[in-house]
Amino acid sequence: MKRIMALFFVLALIVAAVPAALGEDTPKAVSAKETDDSACRDSDSGKDFWNHGVTKTLQDSKEDYCDGNILFEYSCDAGQIQLTRYKCEVGCREGKCVRAPSAEPVNVKPEAVRPEVRPVPRSVTAKTVPPSEDNSEKSLLERILKLERRVNELEALVQKLSGCCERPQPVPVPAPVDSCTERCGEVKTGCYGTCKEKAKGDDKSLRACEARCAPEVESCYKKCRPEKEQPKEEPRPLPPTQEFPCAERCAKTAANCKDDCRQQYVDLQKEANDEFPRKMGLCYQERCEPKMKECLRGCEGQEGETGTATRILRDRALPSEAGEPTVAEASAGEEPQADESEQEAAMKRRRSFFEWLFGK
Hints:
It is a single chain. The protein is of the alpha+beta class. Among the domains are: 32-97, no CATH class; 178-228; 245-334 and 341-358. It has 10 helices and 9 strands. Helix 6 packs antiparallel against helix 8 (275-299).
């Protein structure tokens, strides 16, 4: 009897020890992943750049935000807050990337205009019918059939319009921003921001400061690209040496004619009197100016030459004085009829003009 009781006692001990040996009564160890998940929470469930989210830990809290078209997306990683930057192609607003709008239908015939679509349930139960209406089985059946007809009409209209519209453009997926270009963006923002602070509303100072920022920012971006990917700068075309070749040719013809007149009266140039500028003026007006005017008339039909021709004619014209005859009115062998003092003053004005026009 004692042996039987002892055997039962041993069996009881074994039964009690088996669960303990299997670890059923001991607490479970929490894995590192479970600890991390409980220590960090993200409202948009990870790197979701289409939705705005807030990431929180026991010590910190970060909210997704935009800086221009750059999205700063916070998420959880091993129990810590991780930052990922995305470049939004369409734009960034309120802590999320903006989706591209879908293409609008085109080439839709007037008779195929889509009617107003309202959310319609497939079946109607007694709970969805207002109490004021008839809830009989016949009335419910009529409503169900009416709704089914509307759904069928809408489906037929969608099939009729299929293929008439442009396919919507694929939505650009934001790509992570390169750390080098991101740093250059910070350099650009910082430099231009400092310029605005220093300028204090002065546009001239602001433009001068921004001009100093441009080479620094461009140099930073060049370092981010490999040498083979850097765009080659094409040589800038040199400006034309002569903007109006036809008018310039006419002016050169008049200048050569003026030199011929100078050679003709070279002996008078050595004498200290008014005869040389007078003879030069008459020679230019009678011989050179008609040649230049005839040449310029041929230039007027060419694009852009008319204004230059008018300007040259105006610059070459002798300024007239009130009550004073011009050189063109005084022939080589005829003296102007005027008082001696007026004639002397007129000759001085003519001499100063021709000295300016032809040079001594």
